[in-house]
């Protein structure tokens, strides 16, 4: 049943956000934004132009994806719990298993870890300890307290998300990777969250969206999804 649910989520990504706001044409700091800098804790440096946008929520959201250099750039795709992009995304390339389904060796029933640790977080590893992958609770807040509008910025389709204080971020429809296939770019958005699916360690929680639908689901941890960091 869980496999069917996950496959339906891949086939029918769901996110319907309704938002309004103006396009941002650069990455410079604006009211409600803080410029990101170097984090010496692990030597990671957030790219020039990264800012923490205050949307009037409990956390600030980055203005671009991990691996991107602008708000419209798709950025990298990461397996859940991996900090580097891969040439292929499947069980046989996934770091936290023994090469096949059902052999998860971290974040499993034995270690009882259910939240992504900093060492395995693509946001923290690439941008420093001030940044991390958002939780499902934080995503629910973004979903329920902000308005979302499907739009196009600089030729890239995605959602303009406007917070209760009228500040905004853009989430590109970056698609996802399975094996070496890049699926749904320009149509679908899949973003990892920090929470493991409690009933099966093979799955982690992610967002998904297209033009007219929005939600969250569970996906195989090896999938290559986007990461949009948050900061306090």
Structure description:
Residues 1-29 have low confidence and may be disordered. The strands form four sheets. A four-stranded antiparallel beta sheet has the order 1-2-3-12, with no helix packed on it. Helices cover 11% and strands 26% of the residues. The protein has one domain (2-21, 30-231). By secondary structure, the protein is of the alpha+beta class. It contains three helices and twelve strands; from the N terminus they run αβββααβββββββββ. It has helices at 2-11, 122-127, 136-145, and strands at 33-35, 51-53, 60-62, 147-153, 156-162, 168-172, 176-178, 181-183, 189-196, 203-210, 213-220, 230-231.
What attributes characterize this protein structure?
232 residues; alpha+beta; 4-stranded antiparallel sheet; 3-stranded antiparallel sheet
How are the SSEs placed, and which strands pair?
Layout: H1 2-11, E1 33-35, E2 51-53, E3 60-62, H2 122-127, H3 136-145, E4 147-153, E5 156-162, E6 168-172, E7 176-178, E8 181-183, E9 189-196, E10 203-210, E11 213-220, E12 230-231
Antiparallel strand pairs: 1-2, 2-3, 3-12, 4-5, 5-6, 7-8, 9-10, 10-11
Describe the structure concisely for a colleague.
With 232 residues, the protein is an alpha+beta fold. The protein has helices at residues 2-11, 122-127, 136-145, and strands spanning 33-35, 51-53, 60-62, 147-153, 156-162, 168-172, 176-178, 181-183, 189-196, 203-210, 213-220, 230-231.
